[in-house]
Design a protein that fits this description.
With 221 residues, the chain is α+β, with helices and mostly antiparallel strands. The protein has a single domain, classed as 2-Layer Sandwich (Pseudouridine synthase). The chain contains six helices and nine strands; from the N terminus they run βαββββααββαααββ. The strands form two sheets. Strands 1, 2, 3, 6, 7, 8 and 9 form a seven-stranded mixed sheet that branches. A two-stranded antiparallel ribbon has the order 4-5. Strand 8 and strand 9 form a beta hairpin.
Length: 221
Amino acid sequence: MDQMIVHRLGMDTSGLVVFAKSIDAVRGMNALFRTRKISRQYEALLAGHLTKDQGLINLPIMRDYEHPPFMRISTKEHQAALVNLDPEIVGKKLMEAPKACLTHYQVISRDGLNGNDSLPVTRVTLTSISGRTHQLNVHCAAFGHPIVGDKVYGYRGEATSNGGLDESALAETAPDRASDDLQQLLAEAAKDMNVCVHAKSIKFMHPVTKEDCEFTSPAPF
Protein backbone atom coordinates (compact mmCIF):
# COMPACT_ATOMS: atom_id res chain seq x y z
CA MET A 1 0.00 0.00 0.00
CA ASP A 2 2.85 2.41 0.83
CA GLN A 3 4.10 2.08 -2.76
CA MET A 4 0.82 3.48 -4.07
CA ILE A 5 1.26 6.92 -2.47
CA VAL A 6 2.17 9.23 -5.34
CA HIS A 7 2.99 12.40 -3.39
CA ARG A 8 2.55 13.99 0.01
CA LEU A 9 1.23 17.16 1.58
CA GLY A 10 3.48 19.36 3.67
CA MET A 11 3.16 19.95 7.39
CA ASP A 12 -0.51 19.95 8.51
CA THR A 13 -1.80 20.83 5.04
CA SER A 14 -5.26 19.51 4.25
CA GLY A 15 -6.65 18.68 0.83
CA LEU A 16 -6.19 16.41 -2.16
CA VAL A 17 -3.74 13.50 -2.27
CA VAL A 18 -3.31 11.13 -5.22
CA PHE A 19 -3.06 7.37 -4.70
CA ALA A 20 -2.33 4.99 -7.57
CA LYS A 21 -4.07 1.63 -8.09
CA SER A 22 -1.33 -0.12 -10.06
CA ILE A 23 2.46 -0.15 -10.37
CA ASP A 24 2.20 1.24 -13.91
CA ALA A 25 0.14 4.14 -12.59
CA VAL A 26 2.69 4.78 -9.81
CA ARG A 27 5.55 4.93 -12.30
CA GLY A 28 3.58 7.16 -14.66
CA MET A 29 2.52 9.55 -11.90
CA ASN A 30 6.07 9.72 -10.56
CA ALA A 31 7.23 10.73 -14.04
CA LEU A 32 4.56 13.45 -14.20
CA PHE A 33 5.63 14.91 -10.87
CA ARG A 34 9.32 14.65 -11.75
CA THR A 35 8.82 16.54 -15.02
CA ARG A 36 6.37 19.00 -13.42
CA LYS A 37 3.49 18.11 -15.72
CA ILE A 38 1.01 18.29 -12.85
CA SER A 39 -0.78 21.49 -11.88
CA ARG A 40 -1.52 21.93 -8.19
CA GLN A 41 -3.07 24.92 -6.46
CA TYR A 42 -3.47 25.67 -2.78
CA GLU A 43 -5.74 28.04 -0.90
CA ALA A 44 -4.39 29.80 2.18
CA LEU A 45 -5.10 32.56 4.67
CA LEU A 46 -2.15 34.91 5.11
CA ALA A 47 -1.50 37.38 7.92
CA GLY A 48 -2.30 40.98 6.98
CA HIS A 49 -3.55 42.47 3.73
CA LEU A 50 -1.33 42.01 0.69
CA THR A 51 -0.85 45.17 -1.35
CA LYS A 52 -0.67 43.55 -4.79
CA ASP A 53 -3.37 41.31 -6.23
CA GLN A 54 -0.84 38.84 -7.59
CA GLY A 55 2.88 38.27 -7.76
CA LEU A 56 5.80 35.86 -7.73
CA ILE A 57 7.95 34.99 -4.72
CA ASN A 58 11.39 34.03 -6.00
CA LEU A 59 13.61 33.07 -3.05
CA PRO A 60 15.93 30.02 -2.89
CA ILE A 61 15.61 27.79 0.17
CA MET A 62 18.00 25.59 2.11
CA ARG A 63 18.00 23.32 5.16
CA ASP A 64 17.87 25.25 8.43
CA TYR A 65 21.17 24.39 10.14
CA GLU A 66 20.02 26.14 13.33
CA HIS A 67 16.61 24.47 13.53
CA PRO A 68 16.73 21.13 11.68
CA PRO A 69 14.81 19.54 10.03
CA PHE A 70 13.09 22.75 8.93
CA MET A 71 13.87 24.97 5.94
CA ARG A 72 14.88 28.62 5.56
CA ILE A 73 15.63 31.17 2.84
CA SER A 74 19.16 30.75 1.51
CA THR A 75 21.49 33.77 1.65
CA LYS A 76 25.25 34.16 1.21
CA GLU A 77 25.61 34.54 4.98
CA HIS A 78 23.72 31.33 5.68
CA GLN A 79 25.70 29.45 3.03
CA ALA A 80 28.96 30.71 4.55
CA ALA A 81 27.85 29.38 7.95
CA LEU A 82 27.92 25.84 6.53
CA VAL A 83 31.62 25.99 5.66
CA ASN A 84 32.86 24.93 9.09
CA LEU A 85 30.23 22.24 9.66
CA ASP A 86 31.21 18.58 9.40
CA PRO A 87 28.75 16.66 7.16
CA GLU A 88 29.56 13.46 9.06
CA ILE A 89 28.23 15.09 12.22
CA VAL A 90 25.36 17.28 11.01
CA GLY A 91 24.31 15.02 8.11
CA LYS A 92 24.72 15.36 4.37
CA LYS A 93 21.18 16.67 3.84
CA LEU A 94 21.98 19.76 5.88
CA MET A 95 24.90 20.47 3.54
CA GLU A 96 22.85 20.30 0.34
CA ALA A 97 23.12 23.22 -2.08
CA PRO A 98 20.26 25.76 -1.99
CA LYS A 99 17.27 25.01 -4.19
CA ALA A 100 15.72 27.51 -6.59
CA CYS A 101 12.16 28.16 -5.47
CA LEU A 102 9.17 29.92 -7.07
CA THR A 103 5.69 30.53 -5.64
CA HIS A 104 2.92 32.42 -7.45
CA TYR A 105 0.17 34.04 -5.41
CA GLN A 106 -3.22 35.39 -6.48
CA VAL A 107 -5.46 37.29 -4.07
CA ILE A 108 -9.00 35.95 -3.70
CA SER A 109 -10.22 38.35 -1.01
CA ARG A 110 -9.12 40.58 1.84
CA ASP A 111 -11.07 39.95 5.04
CA GLY A 112 -10.83 39.76 8.81
CA LEU A 113 -10.15 36.48 10.63
CA ASN A 114 -13.54 35.02 11.57
CA GLY A 115 -15.12 38.33 10.54
CA ASN A 116 -12.99 40.42 12.91
CA ASP A 117 -11.76 43.45 10.94
CA SER A 118 -9.08 44.16 13.56
CA LEU A 119 -7.40 40.89 12.48
CA PRO A 120 -6.84 41.45 8.73
CA VAL A 121 -6.07 38.39 6.61
CA THR A 122 -5.79 37.78 2.88
CA ARG A 123 -7.24 34.70 1.20
CA VAL A 124 -4.98 33.65 -1.68
CA THR A 125 -4.41 30.94 -4.23
CA LEU A 126 -0.83 29.67 -4.09
CA THR A 127 0.87 27.79 -6.91
CA SER A 128 4.05 25.97 -5.95
CA ILE A 129 5.96 26.12 -9.23
CA SER A 130 9.08 24.35 -7.96
CA GLY A 131 7.50 22.00 -5.39
CA ARG A 132 10.14 22.16 -2.62
CA THR A 133 9.78 20.88 0.95
CA HIS A 134 7.84 23.37 3.13
CA GLN A 135 8.08 25.86 0.26
CA LEU A 136 4.75 27.62 0.77
CA ASN A 137 5.25 28.03 4.52
CA VAL A 138 8.80 29.40 4.21
CA HIS A 139 8.01 31.70 1.29
CA CYS A 140 4.95 33.23 2.94
CA ALA A 141 6.89 33.80 6.19
CA ALA A 142 9.79 35.43 4.33
CA PHE A 143 7.30 37.49 2.32
CA GLY A 144 6.09 38.96 5.61
CA HIS A 145 2.65 37.34 5.50
CA PRO A 146 2.92 33.94 7.23
CA ILE A 147 0.13 31.42 6.86
CA VAL A 148 -2.46 31.82 9.62
CA GLY A 149 -2.20 29.03 12.18
CA ASP A 150 1.34 28.04 11.12
CA LYS A 151 2.98 27.14 14.43
CA VAL A 152 6.30 26.23 12.82
CA TYR A 153 7.08 29.04 10.37
CA GLY A 154 4.67 31.62 11.76
CA TYR A 155 5.10 34.11 14.60
CA ARG A 156 7.66 32.73 17.10
CA GLY A 157 7.23 29.24 15.72
CA GLU A 158 9.60 26.31 15.97
CA ALA A 159 11.58 27.30 12.86
CA THR A 160 13.68 30.43 12.36
CA SER A 161 11.48 33.56 12.27
CA ASN A 162 10.69 35.29 8.98
CA GLY A 163 11.99 32.37 6.93
CA GLY A 164 15.47 33.08 8.28
CA LEU A 165 15.69 36.65 6.94
CA ASP A 166 16.95 39.55 9.07
CA GLU A 167 15.38 43.01 9.21
CA SER A 168 17.44 44.44 6.34
CA ALA A 169 16.53 41.54 4.04
CA LEU A 170 12.87 41.78 5.08
CA ALA A 171 12.80 45.46 4.20
CA GLU A 172 13.68 44.45 0.64
CA THR A 173 11.58 41.31 0.20
CA ALA A 174 8.57 42.32 2.31
CA PRO A 175 8.17 46.12 2.50
CA ASP A 176 4.41 45.80 3.18
CA ARG A 177 4.73 42.90 5.62
CA ALA A 178 2.34 42.30 8.49
CA SER A 179 3.69 43.91 11.65
CA ASP A 180 4.99 41.78 14.51
CA ASP A 181 2.11 43.02 16.66
CA LEU A 182 -0.45 41.88 14.09
CA GLN A 183 1.29 38.55 13.61
CA GLN A 184 1.22 38.02 17.37
CA LEU A 185 -2.49 38.86 17.61
CA LEU A 186 -3.30 36.48 14.74
CA ALA A 187 -1.15 33.73 16.26
CA GLU A 188 -3.05 34.04 19.54
CA ALA A 189 -6.43 34.11 17.79
CA ALA A 190 -5.55 31.04 15.71
CA LYS A 191 -3.83 29.01 18.45
CA ASP A 192 -6.56 26.37 18.39
CA MET A 193 -6.86 26.33 14.59
CA ASN A 194 -5.15 24.07 12.11
CA VAL A 195 -2.75 25.76 9.72
CA CYS A 196 -4.85 27.50 7.05
CA VAL A 197 -3.43 26.03 3.84
CA HIS A 198 -5.36 23.54 1.71
CA ALA A 199 -4.52 21.63 -1.49
CA LYS A 200 -7.65 22.64 -3.37
CA SER A 201 -7.07 21.48 -6.96
CA ILE A 202 -4.94 19.12 -9.01
CA LYS A 203 -4.84 18.56 -12.77
CA PHE A 204 -2.90 16.01 -14.82
CA MET A 205 -3.13 13.62 -17.74
CA HIS A 206 -3.79 10.06 -16.56
CA PRO A 207 -0.53 8.17 -17.16
CA VAL A 208 -2.30 5.00 -18.34
CA THR A 209 -5.58 6.07 -20.01
CA LYS A 210 -4.24 9.49 -21.17
CA GLU A 211 -7.48 11.13 -20.02
CA ASP A 212 -7.37 14.68 -18.64
CA CYS A 213 -8.07 14.52 -14.91
CA GLU A 214 -9.05 17.41 -12.67
CA PHE A 215 -10.12 17.27 -9.02
CA THR A 216 -11.13 20.02 -6.59
CA SER A 217 -11.76 20.24 -2.86
CA PRO A 218 -13.11 23.32 -1.02
CA ALA A 219 -11.00 24.77 1.78
CA PRO A 220 -12.31 24.02 5.30
CA PHE A 221 -11.49 27.53 6.58
